[in-house]
Structure formats: C-alpha cells, structure tokens
Amino acid sequence: MTTLHFHKYQGTGNDFVMIDDRARQFDITDYKLVRHLCDRRLGIGADGLILLRQHADYDFEMVYFNADGHLGSMCGNGGRCTVAFARKLHVIQDHAHFLAADGPHEARIEADGTVHLRMQNVPGQQELEEHGIFLDTGSPHVVQFLPSNTLAELNVFAQGQAVRYSDYFKEKGTNVNFAEAPATHGQPWQVRTYERGVEDETLSCGTGVTAVALAASRRGATSPVHLRTRGGDLRVSFEAHPDGSFTHVYLSGPATWVFEGTIHG
Fold first, then answer.
1. What is its EC number (predicted)?
2. Is 76 one of the annotated binding-site residues?
3. What is the average pLDDT value for the chain, to the nearest integer?
C-alpha cells in the first residue's frame, strides 16, 4: 500500500472503512492490509472493511471483509452503509440493486439517511438444545433469549465466545445474539451481539437483529419488530409463513457518514 483514500461510515455504531474500488485496484487477497486498516490502535479502526465495486448486472457490488482481514458473509449494517456510500458517490439516487456475498439485494434510502435493505428469505429456524435458536440471515446466527433485567450485566464476550468456538459449530463458527423481551408493549427488544470475525461484542449487528426479530416472532413479536442495540435502534419487517419460513425481510435504520481521509503506508 502507498496511498489509500477511504471513507468511514457507521450504522448504529457498527463501523466500516469504505473504499471506492470501482477501478478494482484493491488486492482482496491482502488480508494483512485489511486487518491493519481495521485495527483501532494502529490503523483507521472499524468492525469491517467494504469495497464498492462496479458490476455489469447491478448498480454495484459490495465486497465485505471482517476485521480479522478475511472475506466475510453478508453484513446487514454494512449493506446499509454501502447503499449510503453509493449515493454519496452518485452511483445511485434513492434506490439500489446490488450484489453481496449472499446474493442480490434491493434497498431504498430516504432523505434523512434511513436505509431500508431487503434481506434474503430465511427458510426457518432450528432449535439447538444446548445453544439456542439458529438462523441464517445471510450470516449464521445463534439467538438466546434471556430473562428480564439480565442482559445489561451479561458478559457477552465470554458467553458469545463459548458458543462461537463450541464443538457444534467447529472452525466455521457463528455469530451469537443475546436478547431480552420488552417489559411493556411498544418498547423495543434489547439485543447484544458477539460477532464472528471481529471476535468481540460490537455495538450493533444488522444480520443479528434480523435473526432476533425473526426468532422473536415465534414468541409473540409482530412485524415490524423494533430492536435496540448498544449503538442505536433498528427495525425489522417480514412476512412469516406457517412452514416456519420468512419472506420480504427488511432491515431498516440509519447509515451515517463519519469522515474521510487518506492513509499512507
């Protein structure tokens, strides 16, 4: 790396280094560079890095890397931030049709920066006796529902790491979400997430809150589900079907430009 221009975006505290790579000059095999750029002490600092690339059949392609430097699966908050970045670059106006790791996505961005991102259909959920509920919302997620007034004091790092590296999930691992139902009707579900690839708790996880919302629908939650992460509020809407599947899944929330700069190395 010599000189690299970047933008920083965040979606409810889930932050990303964004790079305009429409010229396809970024070496996607250089995981050490990605890891350095995401390092919060030695680099720019982020939960992940995203390339926006041209694609012949879509408005753009989103290439997502985890903070550990390796290519990741779908990132919901990252997808929303990429849509906002694409509008800033004048690649799109207020609608997007783009390609991500898990396939095509559609999105709409409002004037206030709220992005409504259509997620993939989810075939259902699996009850795991030992770990909780498993769903794949573009990335693998375990959801554990906790008793009232216990989430705030939970050691998310220790509990999440134990599930992520358990024998059941082996080397592939999983993301792990801990959720608490609202005490009164109309209040948001509380969510905290341990993210694979970051290997720590993040302030928010888009595919994670999507997983929580879908799992919560089998526990009385109705679409749209409002959820509160440590980084802010998100909303998930969907259609639930008798066979346990979910379609028309949308993740909605803010996507905010933070700053831009140039890094040398």
1. 5.1.1.7
2. yes
3. 96
CB 132, CB 142: distance < 8 Å: yes
| Pairing verdict, β 225-229 and 95-100 | unpaired
Residue 66 annotated as lining a ligand binding site: yes
Is there a binding annotation on residue 110? no
Active site residue 205: yes
User: How does pLDDT run across 224-258, given as a tens digit for each residue?
Assistant: 999 999 999 999 999 999 999 999 999 999 999 99
- Name the token pair of 240: 């639930």
Check if the beta carbon of residue 125 is closer than 8 Å to that of residue 135. yes
**Residue 175: predicted pLDDT:** 97
C-alpha span between 43 and 23 (Å, rounded):
23
| pLDDT digit string, tens, across residues 119-168 | 999 999 999 988 999 999 999 999 999 999 999 999 999 999 999 999 99
With beta carbons less than 8 A apart as the criterion, state whether 256 and 127 touch: no
**If DSSP codes are grouped into helix, strand and coil, which group holds residue 149?**
coil
Active site residue 81: no
Q: Contact at 8 Å (CB) between 242 and 51? A: no
Residue 187 confidence (pLDDT) above 60: yes
Q: Is the pLDDT of residue 185 over 80?
A: yes
What is the structure's pLDDT at 265?
A: 61
Per the residue annotation, which of 75, 163, 191, 203 is the catalytic one?
Answer: 75
User: If we measure between CA atoms, which residue out of 181, 188, 167, 185 comes closest to residue 233?
Assistant: 188
Cβ–Cβ under 8 Å, residues 69 and 31: yes
Kindly name the residue from 44, 142, 205, 251 that is annotated as catalytic. 205
77 is in an annotated binding site: yes
